[in-house]
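ingest -> validate -> predict -> emit
validate: passed (alphabet ok, no gaps, 653 aa)
predict: started
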Amino acid sequence: MPGKKYDQAANGGIELTIPNHFRCPISLDLMKDPVTLSTGITYDRESIETWIEAGNCTCPITNQVLRNFEPIPNHAIRKMIQDWCVEKQSYGIERIPTPRIPVNSFEVSGMLSKVMAAQQDEDGDGCREVVAKIKALVKESDRNRRCIVGNETGCVLSATFEAFAKRSFDENVAVLEEILSALTLMFPLDLEAKSQLGSTVSLNCMVWFLKCGGLSGRRNAVLVLKEVLSSDQQKVDALGEIEGAMEALVKLITEPICPTTTKASLMAIYYMVSSSSLENEKVVARFAEMGLVSLMLEMLVESERSICEKALGVLDGLCGCEEGRQKAYEHALTMPVLVKKILRVSDFATEFSVSILWKLSKNEKREGGNGSPNPASKLWKRQDQLILSWIVASVSEGVLPQLVGTPTTSAAWNTLVSAYASGLKAHIRELRAQLHHLHHDIASIETYVVRAKGIANKLATLQHLVSDEELIEFVVVGLGPAYKLFTRMLDCRTDDFDFDDLYGMLLTEECRLTREDAVAIIPPSVQFSQFSSPPFNRGRGRWRGGRGRRRTSPPFSSPSHGRGYQPSNGSSSATTDAFPIVCHNCNSNGHLARVCPSPKMNNSFRAPTKPSSNLASTSSQTNQTWLLDSGTTHHLTADLDSLAIHSEYTGPE
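emit:
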């Protein structure tokens, strides 16, 4: 969740809020390398550089045109963030590291000069140390990588690799492996670098690593080899002529190191079997003799999408020759696996599967000369008839006459499509229009997302799939101005995320907006004290408000109640009886000592020198109810001890 950290274990689920000035306005995360633009707004370096690289020339917050695209490090904010992280370590917050100074072109040129000097002096150890330093800088940040790649480091390292490869492989194995490792971090390589790496000496050296190198050496060699073969057909033919190259590539599949190595090896083999040169038949036949057809079919049973696509591409190339097709005819998994991959993996996988089936069907009779039909074709026809029977049994009676006489599943399906295509297309257009006009109103994010997902599911049932990218675009466009900052944050993201990830981020953003919009409103009732006064009933008495000459209560006296008075059961902040003022001179009610009319004067009485508030209370002291603050400077309570008196009043009377 952006701007939030949680420590459930140590603090029992306490939510810790990151200060707003510590968060990047784009990503809403804690800034790790704060930098300031020419507009004065501070961002995290990674987020603002992504924003600028996307072609934007304005400040994301102020929309002012940037006079300078080079951000300045904000060391003050960075130190404050580090101090805050240290202070909140008990909440599980880790201190952000001090960012390193990015490398510049001058430093890169100096390191490349050292590499070339070491290569001329045949100083393998010195060259390896400089290359290791370059590799460390590339891994440090994307900014460093762009600066290093932009200074033609790939060309220099490729030429250095070729120069050391011309000498002994065994003597320079350390520096050669270090250079290969550094080159894997600089893809894609330019044409000059690929040309130097595609020389006969360099290719032989990489094949040597594939056969005799360690795990890291074999991995780096096949990755660089895949990059070299991707753009030059001549390099593909040259690799096929090197002894042991094909066996080493197949070994990386039978004895995989990691998924990346397997994919790179499959791509290298695909380039070789898909070659249009005259030697392609021999290369494909050699791969088929190594059992690669059976290996690809077994790999297709349970593999991820990327590996399935590459394996189907290799199998398609293998079925282009007689030996490859013969191996496919003999394998029991050929037809079931290929049919299963159609329309279930990806468009590429479907195209490759259909191409393989077409190549196998085109050569339905084996080339052995006996004219016997292909048993795989019989299996395919039997499965097609079973699917056709299922379609006929599942349609309604009104549709059944249209399917009479259709020989294959494809014909039956085309008949149904032609019959219902017009209405189906209209319904699809209507649903697409609903997606285009999605708008997030006052409904919750959950309701909004469920509505969008429901439309996409309806389209999916009509065989009109909506990709995650399209659905994400429709949902984000319809969010409205309240989510403007959120949409900008999504535009700056470089990593991939699916629709479920977007749903989670939208729920988080909705909670954040709700929390920020909530205003603590103090109810007006806190400014008043309730006082329940008894009603003045009609009755007898001098001061009752009933019949009589006086209709108002006398000052400094408690009103009497007539017949029919019922005490109030409601809660009140003070008692309902008024307390008379007692004169300290004559002990009479109704006046003060300083205006006492009695000639008797109590000389012992002295008025208080310091003014204070008088407290009226009952003798029993039973009411402990507080009066709410009315905005005055004094408060009333039935118990003086309940008041927190910090200092004695010394002001004027």
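Residues 4-91 form a domain with the Herpes Virus-1 fold (CATH 3.30.40.10).
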